[in-house]
């Protein structure tokens, strides 16, 4: 049932890469499975998908236990410090780090688990009040501060673009995040790479790819619309 939707997303990613002369291997699709049952994840896993994104710690750990162990889990939602310990050794990448306090906790918990945490800085490029993330201006300083912590490695930047009717409206947002990543990379900070640009969702992932996204986080286009809070 999900096969057609999944394949259409794959084809659109390929087409977007072709349009801007990028190799398909430069872009990782993260299938955002929040609120969806394990059976649906299994179906998409069966189609070959290995990267899944969740935004709640409890849901992520539950699905982690239920699903095969070769999955790369992505924490894409706001993360409370007291919950870091439940996921730090289970996720491939935490996309949503926006404070030194949170980074310190991740660093400490990764140390306790004997692992290195790979993270992205979440940047609120459009400066929407409802969103988490640091501003473009704050990001370089935060990168330098986090770079001094042990057991934590910054791999790039993430943004959640505004909800817009026409995805073209978000092109400037994606351009800004790309430029910021180049500016931070130019600083050659120890322990900081800008290899990952996590940007683009169902409504705008093709534009994001044209502007340099290396990871797109797609939920609705694969799994269908989400139902929140109908039963409780
Ligand atoms: C839910 C979510 C997505 C996926 O959104 P869709 O519009 O369903 O593709 C991507 N990124 C984050 C951070 C999310 O919370």
TrEMBL record:
Q: Which InterPro entries match?
A: Ala_racemase_N (IPR001608), PLP-binding_barrel (IPR029066), PyrdxlP_homeostasis (IPR011078)
> Key word Transmembrane helix present in the record?
no
Q: Which cofactor does it need?
A: pyridoxal 5'-phosphate
Q: Which UniProt keywords apply?
A: Pyridoxal phosphate
Report the superkingdom from the record: Bacteria
Family affiliation: Belongs to the pyridoxal phosphate-binding protein YggS/PROSC family.
Q: What is this protein called in UniProt?
A: Pyridoxal phosphate homeostasis protein
């Amino acid at each position: 049932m999900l096969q057609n939707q999944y394949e259409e997303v794959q084809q659109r990613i390929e087409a977007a890469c072709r349009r801007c002369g990028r190799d398909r291997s430069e872009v990782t699709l993260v299938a955002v499975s929040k609120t969806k049952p394990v059976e649906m994840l299994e179906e998409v896993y069966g189609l070959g998908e290995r990267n899944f994104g969740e935004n709640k710690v409890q849901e992520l750990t539950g699905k982690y236990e239920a699903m095969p162990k070769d999955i790369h889990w992505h924490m894409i939602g706001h993360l409370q410090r007291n919950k870091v310990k439940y996921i730090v050794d289970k996720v491939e990448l935490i996309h949503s780090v926006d404070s030194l306090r949170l980074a310190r906790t991740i660093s400490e918990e990764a140390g306790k688990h004997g692992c290195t945490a790979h993270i992205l800085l979440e940047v609120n490029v459009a400066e929407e009040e409802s969103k988490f993330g640091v501003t473009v201006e704050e990001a370089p300083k935060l990168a330098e501060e986090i770079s001094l912590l042990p057991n934590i490695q910054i791999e790039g930047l993430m943004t959640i673009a505004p909800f817009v009717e026409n995805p073209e409206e978000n092109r400037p947002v994606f351009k800004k995040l790309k430029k910021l990543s180049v500016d931070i990379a130019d600083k050659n900070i120890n322990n900081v790479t800008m290899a990952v640009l996590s940007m683009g969702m169902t409504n705008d992932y093709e534009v994001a790819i044209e502007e340099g996204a290396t990871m797109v986080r797609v939920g609705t286009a694969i799994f269908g619309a989400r139902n929140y809070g109908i039963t409780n």
